[in-house]
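Fold this sequence, please.
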Amino acid sequence: MTETSIQIKELHWMMDILQSIDVGLMVLDRNYVVKIWNSFMENHSGIRPENARDQSIFELFPDLPQEWFAHKVESVFLLKQRAFTIWEQRPHVFPFHNYRPITGTETYMYQDTTIIPLASVDSSVNHVCVIVYDVTDAAGSKKGLQHANTQLQSLSRTDGLTQLNNRAYWELCLQSEYRRFLRTGMPCSLVMFDIDHFKKINDTYGHQAGDDVIRTVSSLLQKNLRQADIAGRYGGEEFGVVLVNTNAQGALKFTERLRRDMERTTTRHETKEIEATISLGIAEINSSISDYTQWLEQADIALYKAKQAGRNQSCIFYLPECELPPIS
């Protein structure tokens, strides 16, 4: 066998390998014209090699982001170094549908791509090889794990009965807002409130009815919150709300709106209609507060004053004495 025939045979072996490997492979010239198109590209694009060769990649894939792709390829021509993309940055370069059995819920194939300079004998680079890796299984698994971790994180922060922040996470947010005040001096108000005569509700209608009332309060609270406000179930029938960038008078408008909503709302439990009210205490943060627990204490004192004054009302904590403000 002559040396030429051996070289031709080895070339056939190489072409067989390129056609059978389970990655996409194509060669582009400087004008982004396809010169090689392997079976992977044919199978996933539906474009046969004879129809792909000598065609612009941008004509074959009109939705391919031309500016981005050209920038990637030109850097390979210029620097004569490989370039890479990963699915976390761009889920796919080529819009191939996903047919993987493990990640069948994904619409498109997730892809990593490598662009390799192909040097001629004179070291010039006039072609690049684009390799497309199907990473849908790995990407789907990672996305699933991230989703599960997000759900677990949410569950660890959420009160099961009300779907508000639980006490532990809410207190962390309260501490964060206290530190923000130390840095910026921006106003912020803390509201603590609970359901009036809640023990009587439980004793009269049962604990499941009491849970329904708590859910009613939670629903009304969430309807009155702004996106920046931070609400949590502090324990039992007691709730806490951090009103960001809000002074005491602004907080009073919030508490009175919530109080009136609760006053007008009945909770249905089985065949019974249960009426309940809430009492609310407000403490605006100030420079005399040494830590967040003192802020909590001031809001609790205001809540106690509201109950002492007859319940179903709001009270603001005032220095040096906590006096009941007029309710407008």
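DSSP finds eleven helices and twelve strands in the chain. The chain has a mean pLDDT of 87.
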